[in-house]
Amino acid sequence: MCDRILVMVKGKIVKALDRADFSQEALLYWATSTEVPLKTIKAESSEKQVSRSRTKGFSFSKFLKRWGTIAGMVLLFIACGIAAPHFLAPSNLFNVLKQGSVLALIALGLTIALISGGFDMSVGALSQLTSNLSAGLVAGGLATSLTLLTGGLVGLGVGALNAFFVVLLRMPPFVATLGTMFALMGATLAYNKGQSFTLADKPEFFTMGQGYIGPIPIILVIVVALVMVLLLFLKRTRPGLHMYAVGGNPQAAVVRGLNKSASIVLSFMLGGLIVGLSGVILTSYSYGASAVPASLDFLISALAAAFLGTTFNRAGQLDVLGTVVAAIFIAAINNRLILNGVSNLVLPGIQGLILVLSIIPGVIRKKGIGQVTIF
Amino acid sequence: MSKQSIPAESQDANRVLNQDPALSSPGRKSGGIGTLLREHLPLIGMVLVLIGGGTLEPNFFLLANLSSVAQQSSMLIIIAIGLSIPMLMRGVDLSIAQVTDATALMAAALVAHNQPVILAFVLPILLGLFIGVVNGWLMGYVGVPAIIGTLGMMFIVRSGELIYSKGSQPQILFALPRSMTAPFLFIAQGTLGPIPMILIVWIVIAIGMYFLTKTTVFGRQMDAVGGNVTAAFLSAVNVKKVFAGGFVLSSLMASLAGITLASWTGIAVPRGAESYLMEAFVAVYLGTVTTKNGQISVLGTVIGALFVGALNNQLTLLGLGAAERNILNGAFVLLAMAIGALRKKRR
């Protein structure tokens, strides 16, 4: 009936059989072979490899690639200090660290979701929802611990919902989290009715975001502790390493017998938990919750931090430590610009630039086009 | 993140195969009323939702109201068509509503400063094309994942807008003398005989884009890139150029929508058009359930956009606000994708 048969193994076309070549044996040979497809694919992509090997050599460009971002950041930092001496004053430095910490928390949640190959559009919306929710709860007289618990549970629930759509319904993470993002934005609006919450006179609750231990902001302590726990979890425990494996190469991970679904569920829920808590801390930090819909603003800051963080290590890997450093760097830039009298109208554009520039080194070697799984 | 899972790729192969009429299953030919119903179930569902909403608020069915829905939805339809073009190729353009916003502001500012009306049409389109070319270069040639690149572009454009308007001061046209603004406002507020111009605008654009995607070489190449980029590359499609072209087209659509928006409302408020992004996504994803294979198509997108527009109209008539609209929109995206997932499983 047909003039050719394409044999596919694990979603890859391994062989096109012409009508003349076709026999049941040949079909089965190609369909069951596991070694051959790799060779075929390699042959096809040998052209790519040639071009890749050509980029090697010339150590200065290599050096620039490896250390360029960090050097650039340090230079920028020093330039900032020279231009505005107040910038490097200890009080301002701790201010920067404090400002960066809120962003770092959201970015950490996003990084966890990204590590296992997911994508989470809903982080900003979730953070804003729990921020508004906790403001309302605290205003209603709920204890700080219970407010944190509520924020964490809401985050866990949203993470579980995202995981449900992605794992059970097999939606691409982008679409699933886009849907939950819209729904969460609506829920926030329904809860606060477009009104901001301003909290006053809740010293116990404000300690979390605004308190100090000696000269060190408590919020920074929270972030550092969280990073240490996450580093331990991601680099030293089995589930954490599995998350990296699934994100790096899902097919290989499945072949090696890892439970891909479990890793994805875990990463969405863990990410959701952190982002949910970040909303509560944000409220404590800013003495209330804003009604300005800032979901996408939070998202782009967090994405910029996560991808800027990948430029620090050689493999271009997502890394919680890198994320936090990058988040604080972004906060420092914002702080610096405001100190210099640049209006905050420029800030979104700068974050957009940082985001695009920081992802370019990672993708430019791949020589692909920017397709994403949206469908 | 372009991590491709195994099932996603095999589905793509199915999609490509199904496009060839000779290869699609012959069993479907017997078009009984049952199969007809089953194939158009989502469409029927949409109509039922609207009828259900209409019974709560009968004013919805007034001819004047329905016609106003078709006119109000124009901008959404044009933006959604624009968004559907990169999405056809598994890209996405998050900057699209922001470009609409910026071009609307530019057009309104040009008219308000008494520039020749032709400039108010040409310059915003050039701005849209420029942003589209930068987007296309980033996504097509550099290889930045489309979510990241266009999100970055969205915020860069937003910054530019805010700086220009000194923190979102609107450009108001309707308060200006009519003699100054009339030629510009005609494009959306005028009528050609009995037909409102704005209807003509979106219908012409929709028909143009329909034929571009269905009958031209570029349209077929876009299908190929969306179906299987390696196969497209091996069949001598200039993958990078086609992918980049999608972003130029989407930004062009965005600028057309921006001009229409400024002309229709007679005012351009910076960041006023941003909510179109969300609605355009809903329109595109809802549009996929109206087609048999769950593909993105111009026609489906137009249907989806009209549905979103009609639903917004009903919610407004019922006195419900942005909160309910957001929640419903989110639910519709998830529902549309869930239906798509279930159908794929059955096949």
What does this structure look like?
The complex is a heterodimer of chains A (375) and B (347). Chain A is mainly α. Chain A has 15 helices and 6 strands. Chain A has helices spanning 24-32, 35-54, 59-83, 90-115, 123-139, 144-168, 173-192, 203-210, 218-236, 238-248, 250-255, 260-285, 295-310, 320-339, 347-364, and strands at residues 4-9, 12-18, 197-198, 212-213, 216-217, 288-289. Chain A has a two-stranded antiparallel sheet. In chain A, helix 4 packs antiparallel against helix 12 (260-285) and helix 4 (90-115) crosses helix 13. The longest helix of chain A has 26 residues, at 90-115. Chain B is mainly alpha-helical and 347 residues long. Chain B is 75% helix and 2% strand. Chain B has 16 helices and 4 strands. The two termini of chain B are 27 Å apart. Residues 1-30 of chain B have low confidence and may be disordered.
Shape of chain A: globular
Order of helices and strands of chain B: HHHHHHHHEHEEHHHHEHHH
The total strand number of chain B stands at: 4
Low-confidence stretches of chain B: 1-30
User: What's the tally of helices of chain A?
Assistant: 15
Shape-level CATH architecture of chain B: Orthogonal Bundle
List the domain count of chain B as a whole number.
1
Q: Determine the strand fraction of chain B and express it as a percent band.
A: under 5%
Distance between the termini of chain B: 27 Å
**Rg over alpha carbons of chain A:** 24 Å
* CATH classification, class level of chain B: Mainly Alpha
- Given helix and strand content, the structural type of chain B is mainly alpha
Strand content of chain A: 5-15%
By DSSP, the count of extended strands of chain A is 6
Main traits of this protein?
heterodimer, A: about 375 residues, mainly alpha, ABC transporter involved in vitamin B12 uptake, BtuC, two-stranded antiparallel sheet, two-stranded antiparallel ribbon, 15 helices, 6 strands, globular, B: about 350 residues, 16 helices, about 75% helix, about 0% strand, disordered N terminus
